[in-house]
Inverse folding.
């Protein structure tokens, strides 16, 4: 929409942020710190976006939390690792900006608010630790647990988490890996006792403690609130407003049943998520095998920011890719993502031929890339009775029965033998038996000769530390279970092309003045890969910070 000098602005500020996930809230804080009169507009009736549904992990090397743990990196190590993971898919200047401004972003947040505090996810390996510059001990941090009651009335406006937890119970990523082994290790049992005691204390003190993405958004929201930055919920962006030169001067927002023209003197930051819930865009852009919607992203992420940017001339990239995640939809409608489960020792994943096709415990984006490239569909997660009694699966704890609805809907199948299971799920019985026998041989030898499962520190992070090979063990004890998996995602990777200042770019590389982008509204700085847990959230925060600081330093027309 071109600016019409005869039309008046309904509202004027310096800087408008579209979206209230981690990137948008970080950008708003940075803009306010730079002296800008800032407004956040959010399409949904709740705030937090996909970040609120996530694990809340942050991957930013050399951040102050890591440095306090003695885990600082040389810049060269970080660059070598990102070069190995990302390759030449991303402009050098953007990678440099992420490396250099990442620590500054986290330092800024810690300085800006006492609520923004984090901890190291101890030993959570980088996703490719074997690559040059990779870290087997990891670079991932997470927010400390947070009492949502501190938000006051804003507590009820936070997007609810993906899974409800029992009253008072809260678990960090750092703790989950221990709790996952509650039936196998003393560390797991101690963690269970500690979290149980903590839950009782939380109930007695009437706290509303949360962790993961809920804690990250809660902490950011409180910082934004105390900074005096207004947040308009239920206010979707209709379009961007440009002048005759093509520069973005503001936007149109639907609020209270009316369209409002908002002038943004210093610019607009698009941080409104990807297009994972936009079925038409999925069909148009995503790869075969990933077009169907099995997304765990926010239901409101339909690509609004990406389309608005494209309409004013922004170039798009990486639109065929996503932050893929092996998933299944439970009968209650909840999308369950398979992270820790794929390292369950007594399990395999097979395709329609009854054969394994990749390392089951590999990073989730890597796994689904292999799945899609090989057109492996359907795929089945198969595990045995001992695995069921030892490890959690799909949020069902060891010893707890799977809901009968899992069986009646065809999501899960159970049989007393591998041959019977193959028949139940329509796989060649002899081939599945051969696949299991071959895998069992590798498990006994402690080495997966087909796909190298367990050779990476990442594979073993969620494995069973009581075993010689934490991600390998035989499947030999009935009953046997099979769950059909889908190529799900945490959000899409493609979006607006931008420069090292987070400024949106046209196809010819020229800058669209006044328009910035971050998070899944922008083309991922990680390219087609994934450096470590939190490599979605980390860059979203960093480029939100970068864009806001650039806007604050730019001259006003």
């Amino acid at each position: 929409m071109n600016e019409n000098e005869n039309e008046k602005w309904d509202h004027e500020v310096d800087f408008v942020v579209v979206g209230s996930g981690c990137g948008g809230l970080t950008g708003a804080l940075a803009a306010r710190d730079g002296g800008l009169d800032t407004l956040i507009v959010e399409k949904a009736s709740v705030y937090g976006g996909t970040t609120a549904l996530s694990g809340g992990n942050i991957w930013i090397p050399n951040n102050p939390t890591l440095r306090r743990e003695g885990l600082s990196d040389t810049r060269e190590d970080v660059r070598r690792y990102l070069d190995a993971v990302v390759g030449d898919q991303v402009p050098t200047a953007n990678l440099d900006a992420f490396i250099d401004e990442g620590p500054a972003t986290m330092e800024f947040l810690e300085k800006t608010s006492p609520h923004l505090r984090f901890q190291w996810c101890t030993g959570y390996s980088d996703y490719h630790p074997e690559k040059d510059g990779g870290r087997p001990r990891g670079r991932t941090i997470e927010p400390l647990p947070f009492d949502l009651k501190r938000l006051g009335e804003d507590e009820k406006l936070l997007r609810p988490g993906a899974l409800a937890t029992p009253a008072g119970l809260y678990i960090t990523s750092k703790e989950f890996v221990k709790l996952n082994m509650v039936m196998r290790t003393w560390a797991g049992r101690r963690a269970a006792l500690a979290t149980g005691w903590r839950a009782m204390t939380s109930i007695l003190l009437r706290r509303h403690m949360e962790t993961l993405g809920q804690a990250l958004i809660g902490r950011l929201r409180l910082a934004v609130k105390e900074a005096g930055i207004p947040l308009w919920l239920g206010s979707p962006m209709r379009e961007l407003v440009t002048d005759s030169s093509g520069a973005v001067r503001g936007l149109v927002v639907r609020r209270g049943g009316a369209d409002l023209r908002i002038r943004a003197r210093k610019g607009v930051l698009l941080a409104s998520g990807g297009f994972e819930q936009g079925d038409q865009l999925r069909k148009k852009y995503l790869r075969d095998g990933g077009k169907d919607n099995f997304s765990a992203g926010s239901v409101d992420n339909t690509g609004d920011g990406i389309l608005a940017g494209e309409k004013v001339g922004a170039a798009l990239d990486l639109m065929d890719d996503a932050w893929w995640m092996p998933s299944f939809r439970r009968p209650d409608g909840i999308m369950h993502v398979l992270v820790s489960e794929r390292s369950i020792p007594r399990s395999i994943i097979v395709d329609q031929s009854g054969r394994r096709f990749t390392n089951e415990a590999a990073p989730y984006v890597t796994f689904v890339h292999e799945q899609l490239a090989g057109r492996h569909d359907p795929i089945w997660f198969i595990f045995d009775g001992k695995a069921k009694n030892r490890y959690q699966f799909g949020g069902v704890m060891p010893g707890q029965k799977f809901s009968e609805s899992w069986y009646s809907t065809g999501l899960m199948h159970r049989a007393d033998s591998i041959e019977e299971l193959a028949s139940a799920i329509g796989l060649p019985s002899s081939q599945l038996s051969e696949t299991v026998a071959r895998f069992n041989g590798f498990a006994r030898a402690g080495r997966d000769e087909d796909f190298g499962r367990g050779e990476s520190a990442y594979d073993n992070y969620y494995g069973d530390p009581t075993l010689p090979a934490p991600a390998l063990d035989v499947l030999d004890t009935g009953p046997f279970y099979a769950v059909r998996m889908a190529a799900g995602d945490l959000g899409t990777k493609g979006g607006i092309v931008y420069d090292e200042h987070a400024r949106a770019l046209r196809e010819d590389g020229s800058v669209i003045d006044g328009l910035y982008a971050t998070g899944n509204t922008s083309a991922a700085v990680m390219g087609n890969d994934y450096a470590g847990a939190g490599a979605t959230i980390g860059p979203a925060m960093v480029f939100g910070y970068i864009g806001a600081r650039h806007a604050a330093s730019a001259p006003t027309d």
Summary: The CA atoms of residues 322 and 492 lie 4 Å apart. The two ends are 19 Å apart (CA to CA).
